[in-house]
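Write out the bound-state structure for pyridoxal-5'-phosphate.
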Amino acid sequence: MSKRVYLDNAATTPLAPEVFDAMAVVLRDSFGNPSSTHSFGREVKGKIEMARRKIAKMLHVTPGELIFTSGGTEADNMAILGSVRDLGVKRVITSPLEHHAVLHTVEDLENQGQIELDFVKLLPDGCVDLAHLEGLLKDEKPTLVSLMHANNEIGNLLPLDKVSAMCRQYGAYFHTDTVQTMGHYKFDLSQLDVDFLTCAAHKLHGPKGVGFLYVNKNIRIKPLIHGGAQEREMRGGTENVYGIIGLAKAMEMAWEHAEEHQAHVQGVKDHMISLLKAEFPEVQFNGACSQSEQSLYTVLNVQLPATQKASMLLFSLDLMGVACSGGSACSSGSNKGSHVLRALENSNVERPNVRFSFSRYTTKEDVEYAVECLKSIYSKEAQLK
Ligand SMILES: Cc1ncc(COP(=O)(O)O)c(C=O)c1O
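---
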């Protein structure tokens, strides 16, 4: 295979070379255990705390409000399980489109009889029905609302300001999974009233296996992972030092160039939309892709024309060097299909649905190649008819 094009950045992003360099220095030179009190340990502990302070400054929070975790899944679990165990939450409101790190956690709590679970209604394009959310909140049960900022499969954005204000008004706690958006937008948490927020480094050109949970300083929850006194006694276990350094560097780069990256990636996405419309008049877009203010600029979920080889489409693209996804990579290997597309009123699971997702390294030539490959797959099928 000669040409390879990576259009699966919602699954994970390539590590930025600058992030690799920042991590490599620490990996090579700073091996001390951050909990050791001698100079080797203190040196590494200092680097972790420096990384925490940098991230806190970008987000306008205090360093003590950030707990480094093994990534998005752990942070989501910690927020939800901590709210129920330590904050007296008796009901969780979420949406059927959440990531399984949220959905499976709340379903498990419901099965154990620990919470009541309410799903907020969706509009036909998959956006959260805010009027319904408000209706649910009006009964003022002790509630956690857990809603993601951007959906990882279809890219729909949640108006965080409106939802956080509504949660405050009705006395509910609010957790948002910002795994797909942290670093793609610059968050200022002094302006946004959330209780918990989840981040994973590998979606913003950082390393895998590291992220953080932001916990508002007015809230006290207990650790999810017990052991040592790391993370101000909030998470036991020797820290993922290189990961944390990489996460801080990735965020620094994202913050510094946010507007430039957004303009570039939105341009790539718009280019692919127009190419697809020109080549495949029947094409549809899942979710709210056509309204850019409601759609994450890195994700494009496409409903392609029907083909007898729908199940082979991703495989054929892969053979031609194009990496993309049929749902979320986190559930690939299961043959249940996408729970997100199944929950959408305007989707068509009989047609091939493909998620293309972009990053600052994606070029217009990359998406042109992908569309050429799609054309060739469809024209071969037409010739066989
Ligand atoms: C929205 C969302 N939340 C959570 C996760 C899980 O994050 P991690 O892979 O760091 O555990 C993902 C990963 O795909 C995601 O897209």
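---
The longest strand covers residues 173-177.
Residues 183 and 251 are 6 Å apart (CA to CA).
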